[in-house]
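Hi L.,

You mentioned the student needs an example of a multi-chain input paired with its predicted structure. This one should do, with 1396 residues in total across all chains.
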Amino acid sequence: MLDNFFNPNSIAVVGASRTPGKVGYDILKNINQYGYPGMVYPINPGASEILGKKAYPSLIGVPGKIDLAVIVVPSKDVIEVIGQCGTKKIDSAIVITAGFKESGIEGSKLENELIRKAKESGVRFIGPNCLGMIDTHSKVNASFAAGMPARGGIGFFSQSGALCLAVLDRALPDEIGFSKFISMGNKADISDTDIMLALAEDENTKVILGYIEGVGDGRKFMEVAKEVTKKKPVIILKSGITSSGAKAASSHTGALAGREAAFDAAFRQSGVIRAHTINELFNFALAFANQPLPQGPNVVIITNSGGPGILAADACDKSDLKIVSPHKDVVDELRTFLPTAASFYNPIDILGDSGADRYEKALTTVLKDEKMHGIIVLLTPTAVVDVDETAMAVVNIAGNTDRPILTSFMGKQRIGSGAKTLLRYNVPNYSYPEEAVSSMNAMYHYRVWINRPEKTYPQFHDLKSKAIHIFEKAAEENKERLTDSEVHDVLTAYGFTVPRSLFARTSEEAVAAARGIGYPVVMKIVSPQVIHKSDMGGVKVGLDSKKAVENAFFDITTRVRNIMPAAQIYGVMVQEMIRGGKEVIMGITKDAQFGHMVMFGLGGIYVEVLKDIAFRITPLSQEDAHEMIRETKTFPLLRGVRGEAEADIEAIEKSLLTLSRMAMDFPRIIEADINPLLVRKRGEGVVAIDARFAIGGE
Amino acid sequence: MLDNFFNPNSIAVVGASRTPGKVGYDILKNINQYGYPGMVYPINPGASEILGKKAYPSLIGVPGKIDLAVIVVPSKDVIEVIGQCGTKKIDSAIVITAGFKESGIEGSKLENELIRKAKESGVRFIGPNCLGMIDTHSKVNASFAAGMPARGGIGFFSQSGALCLAVLDRALPDEIGFSKFISMGNKADISDTDIMLALAEDENTKVILGYIEGVGDGRKFMEVAKEVTKKKPVIILKSGITSSGAKAASSHTGALAGREAAFDAAFRQSGVIRAHTINELFNFALAFANQPLPQGPNVVIITNSGGPGILAADACDKSDLKIVSPHKDVVDELRTFLPTAASFYNPIDILGDSGADRYEKALTTVLKDEKMHGIIVLLTPTAVVDVDETAMAVVNIAGNTDRPILTSFMGKQRIGSGAKTLLRYNVPNYSYPEEAVSSMNAMYHYRVWINRPEKTYPQFHDLKSKAIHIFEKAAEENKERLTDSEVHDVLTAYGFTVPRSLFARTSEEAVAAARGIGYPVVMKIVSPQVIHKSDMGGVKVGLDSKKAVENAFFDITTRVRNIMPAAQIYGVMVQEMIRGGKEVIMGITKDAQFGHMVMFGLGGIYVEVLKDIAFRITPLSQEDAHEMIRETKTFPLLRGVRGEAEADIEAIEKSLLTLSRMAMDFPRIIEADINPLLVRKRGEGVVAIDARFAIGGE
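Structure written out for the whole complex:
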């Protein structure tokens, strides 16, 4: 895929310049100087030759075929050049030029025009407003970055050109190897998903690294990421966590779902590894690009000093990695050559007077323990240790095992060349033990991801047809929310148990309804304007007599009228009072980029005060429903503490899957809450006590 | 303090060697080669001269006065040398030699002997089992480390010699400046607190940096740290978080109080800044050593690229720093020279075509905004930017402002010399924006610490005398826990309100008691063996009739007998049933290093499932009590959610202070829980419903 970008037989630089320092010059120079073997055509109407290459006045005048056009002309001319690409049958272009969407309204219009023209002309393009692209294997450096990274397995794409520069500059002196470097710019045409797919196919790329600030089509992103992460690790640094201004939301689910919740869910559901800092992005990339994945969580630490060993063990303890003692036979063997003052367990402290030979022996010995899935080697530059020799010893062993070895040779002056040796032979060295641990942990997480079985999606009968008339009617009437009786109908259509309830216009009707349902009952205001009924004094519970119902009718209607004089009060809903069980809340919300999400949390203060909630993007798999319940900190309360009975967790899972189905069936749902959903004992199911639905356009 | 260590007029190296590679040689060489101006005496019975210095057979034979002895002889000979120090009136020694406590039982004995001998001889010593000590200002390098750090303001002490080596090796190529480097070894005599006090006094030390795995005397540590942190920042990396094996505890408070809780509380209460990784330790040290503290939380970010700016803003958002918009006048001024595509708010993006001049102007302009307390400057190595020139521009401005400026010039190859320039002129440069932010945040926290008013400690009447007889009796009887009636008496002596309760041996007595107290009542088993009464079925609540009390008596005694056949059942306690209010839990626990701590959390599942608790080491100040309540995530529940009344938070504070007083009064208390403490509405106080006290020796 995107072959003409990454492996073109010929490149034209449209807007090539003779003036050093100009972007049109730097790009041509970069293409020339890093050994690109194909044809290069500078396009410049005022020049006959640039940097030793014959120049042409326009693309049209170039005699041969052109695979890739790199466009550096002023923004007003870009669209014309794209047209020429079409004429010349050039299907791939990189638009370096800025001055498009990033620059305001005029630029936005220009970008739309560019997109249109490119589609019409059959041209795919990267950019605009980008730094260009580098492929180390085909030796294409179609960028104005200073330098060419070493060849290697990291494929990097970035929404920020500046970050490309910083990463490249960081990589150069350490000869960190990259396969591709792609500055995505405004992503007007070629998107993150296009690049992920191309990198997934690219045999030179072992790990896909990305920096994004947002994605265009969240659904597509997830769909592609899910497939790609089965083949290769995808590590992404996502910025823009600070969502400016929380939107005024009309339901709990909406208020609780920030954009971060959507990204977190999307990454989790599609196996993307999230880096939280640039440093992590780098650290993880080095591990994945150079070392095999661990088969499990067990890590053994070999160190020549106690302190760093403890720090590494602490870091393991905070991660999902496990520090287990080596097998007895291994300990016995260690005893044969380590000094008695050494520590034979884990971390294995081979002491400060260790040389390379002792490191080598210890490493060889612990590798005999099959239950050790990964090894972390720590070194402090003592007077006796030969750092380079030790690095070579580690490298030799790492080359002969299928288990990951990460190192932290600490320091800088005496460590420098050893660290380089390690990396050159594919053993990443980290400045600090904690970084080696977090990188190993990321690898372990990815192992868990690729080992997990295919997700299972539940089959539903057609439920949609039973509820479609409600949503259609609401759409016709331009309603913003469903009425209580519509909510009731939607919930029952989707198989939710709801309390028996009867609508009453007068206190007499209320008494009759209560008698029909059976005391005690709950009464709730029915008014299209009253959304948070309890907060308005519009709910009364435990009404166990005629008198109580009559009083409640009066109380409720008076209180709501006092608080909201303008509210239309239709009457009250008289409901069966369900007792016992635990309150949970679940709902649907809609993210601008990822669409519908389903939310879950324990009801009341757990959600409101502790924000102890979990999100998944629809459709939910059975595994998603299972995991999201267990993800909340309050989950033990559902399983039952202090001898309580276990709640019907299966019924919660089923409800979440049903909500997911409902969201898929009705794109009009903007937000929905079932709050509370009462969960009874295991086997006894759930009851949707109250719910709200906000709807909008498709 | 410790002047003869840090600024000796003469040094003897006992065990000096002529063999390169031996520690006794390396130390002498280090003392010689870094310009130490004082007298140096190698002590070696078999040599007449080493490294150009006249050697002596023993300390006694040295003609002049010796200020400091560095001891490198075999462990069996160390004690004799210490004796000679005494004879020769040398009051300061560094014992490099290993083979003491760290090596097992024999070594432990030897160390005790060493301590005894040193005390008897009037010798203070660092070590044993250490790397030695460096003072860059007096040019003493009495260590066997390879290299001498640059002069600077960081005073570093470390329990791990290896970490000293790693830190030194990391510091050398970047010329990071240190005042002192002290390898503490086994801390047999000179302790962390001694060193902290000495560094606090040392005028060359601006920031105190430490690595510890534990402290000997936790109370002393806190007391000293509290004083020292008023003068200078103390940053400590504490390892050993993984407490091996949780101790079997007999109360909630005990089970919840890990050693980490004690260290966290101790650091917080004494103003110590905790670093969580070696990287953080370094990063924080550089900020504190080189830049002034911010006066407040407002940070402005200046960047030449969007992505890194967003990453920095995200990091601020996760910290306590604030990103505020610049003053209108400042924005207006920025508009006069920045391109229109720039971002004028915060982060201020001066765009990728910025040169040093634009950085300089932008920086000068934002500094006119007095409400900006700190500045973070980000740079990515674009083609146009002159990194060195920009570094000089930043340095010049930083030298003329009293506000902190931290930078993250990102990359490595093109950044290297600029980063060095920055650091040379006291502007720390961080590899990644997030590191600059977390360092600024640490400085802001320290500013808050030094600005806070003196803590206030409440005055108590003598409460001890009212309860002392209970504890004395318990001690005489070797009791492990107080009986219910003793608990009752202790609580009332300390002014806690407790439910009215009467002991009943039979169901008839129980009925009489209930009648006296008034229905409804609570009944609880009274048995010395039953600690967790509810779990044993030993509690019944809401008993509102004679019949109910009779049944409950039978139920409770039968159930407990069935579950614990061996338990002695004395009868039941009939208690007034207190209704309403919120349940909290508070308690006392005893940490091996820090002594008594007071714990607080919301009762029931909040403590048990969510572990939402706070600790403070006694004595608690009023501020401690105030803060620890507000530290819990569930605090909003006490303030009242959804229109609930506020709980009596003042009464909780008073109770915590009372518990602190009680712990101070009675060192015998090992653990105590008041669980639940029922908190009523504001102004209505608290009631201690149930409590447990475990006691031991002093």
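You could point out the following to them. Chain B touches chain A through 80 residues (CB under 8 Å). The longest helix of chain B spans residues 433-451.

Best wishes,
N.
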